[in-house]
Amino acid sequence: MSAKETRADLIVVGAGPAGASAALAAHRAGLAVVLIDEAGRPGGQVWRAPASGVAIPDALRTQDDRDGAALRAEVAASGLTFVGDARVWSVTGRFRVDAATEAGTQAFVAPRLVAATGAHERVVPFPGWTLPGVIGLAAATILLKSEAMLPGRRTVVAGCGPLLAAVAAKIVAAGGTVAALVDLAGPADWMAAAPRLARRPRLLRQGLGWMLRIGLARVPVHFRHAVVAAEGAEAVEHVVIAPVDAEGAPVAGPRRRIAADALAVGHGLLAGAEIPRLLRAALRFDALAGGWVPVLDAAGRTSIEGLYAAGDGAGIAGAAAALLSGRLAGLAAARDAGALAEPAFADARDRIAAERDAVEAFAGAVRRMMRPRRGLVDAVAPETVVCRCEDVTRAEIDAAVAAGAREVNQLKHFTRCGMGPCQGRFCGDTAAELVARHVGSRAAAGVWTGRPPLRPVPLDTLLGDFDYADIPVPKPAPL
Questions:
Q1: Residues 186-212: pLDDT tens digits?
Q2: How far apart are CA 359 and CA 196, in angstroms?
Q3: DSSP per-residue letters across 309-324
Q4: Sign of the CA dihedral running 349, 354, 358, 360
């Protein structure tokens, strides 16, 4: 069944800080804009709206909630077209976006597109990470922000970066118990980052507030430790942690076995550059920026005419930088469409560039705290599942490389790693790191070839309502 088609001057995929600001800037410049998001309302991950009918307690409300509410009000008042609860599963050139929505399949067509699809989490595998009760730090924030729901009665929070303290503090504020906070970094790492973090006083105060709440709750904090196993018969019952060095490699020291029914864990963020990758835009590998990111000019233009990228999907930098990069991409789209004069665009570009410089020091410090740790990947045991969708272990990946797989797409052919519903989002970074150990670099290991569907979509959603008589059957060729 053919999808309903909507035409516009610009399509923006992703309604977080970057996408929403891009859509608003382009709309104000005079473009007809369609803004699409999987969520029902704008905000993205960092400014996620509460689920319908869910009342968020005052103890869980933060400045992020107020910023998100302001953004949603601005989008609603703007008059631009927002399409929520829409799962984009295909994007083709010049530009057609196909999405599965509550109203059925819909297609959107425009000469320009801004990809603002944010980031997803990196979790380096360990024994037991597939057990029920093990979730990502980002998933924990969704439960807390959107559903006012605790991850568990007794949760271990582990990994690296500021999200550790944010999640632990929210669990405490919601009345939950944090059994332990397990940080790959050490106190000296945080002290070294402090001068750069101090460049954003409000965010620094917020972080200190999280740590105060964690301290008052007497949460055990284990610096320079990592989760080495999650244990349980049918779900998490214990989390095992051990000391590590600065690169996450195990070192001598006692292991601790902590009773818990939930583990929220994350090892940094990966740029969600699926659309530029699908459309074969030029990419570059930058470990601190979140892996493979699109090559951009100063205004967010990719190597493909009419395609722009903004926010964490173009390189991890946080909400403040995402707002600025989104606004710039939206203005660039308006300039390229002839709706904005060059002098006005150049003036806006220079002002935004100066604002981005002001937030870059803070963003750089956060990126370094979330950096990938080589030793953490090296410590993945042979029997550990790396690809959860296809149950591919590290031993099978190493065997495939030994058998001749020299880059990640060959690895996919040999093992099916990356061919499941997540399309390699969860396993891709670790699998590529393991291949890189043999071929010399992540650039040599390559990147998954982008293919639709970008997200899993039920087949009946795509097919719609029809019967056999609706299928066009060509007339037989003459004999």
A1: 999 999 999 999 889 988 899 999 999
A2: 10
A3: E-GGGGS---HHHHHH
A4: positive
22-to-114, 299, 349, 367 alpha-carbon distances in Å: 8, 12, 13, 23
Specify whether the backbone of 433 is left (phi greater than 0), alpha (psi in -120 to 50) or beta.
alpha
Q: Sheet containing 256-259: give its strands across.
A: 225-231, 238-243, 256-259
Q: Say whether 45 sits in a helix, a strand or coil.
A: coil
- Reported as a single tens digit per residue, the pLDDT across 256-310 is 999 999 999 999 999 999 999 999 999 999 999 999 999 999 999 999 999 999 9
Tokens describing residue 24: 């608003």
Query: Which H helix or E strand runs over 223?
Result: strand 221-223
Q: Residues 248, 376: contact at Cβ < 8 Å? A: yes
Q: 396-434: per-residue pLDDT in tens?
A: 999 999 999 999 999 999 999 999 988 899 999 999 999
- The CA distance from 238 to 251, in Å, is 21
Q: Are 260 and 235 in contact (CB under 8 A)?
A: no
6 contacts 110 by C-beta, under 8 angstroms = no
Q: Which DSSP symbol is given to 301? A: B
- For the chain, the 3-state helix, strand and coil shares in percent, each to the nearest 5, are 40, 20, 40
Given a cut of 90, is residue 441 above it in pLDDT?
yes
Tokens matching residue 402:
């030994």
Q: Which two tokens stand for residue 221?
A: 């904090």
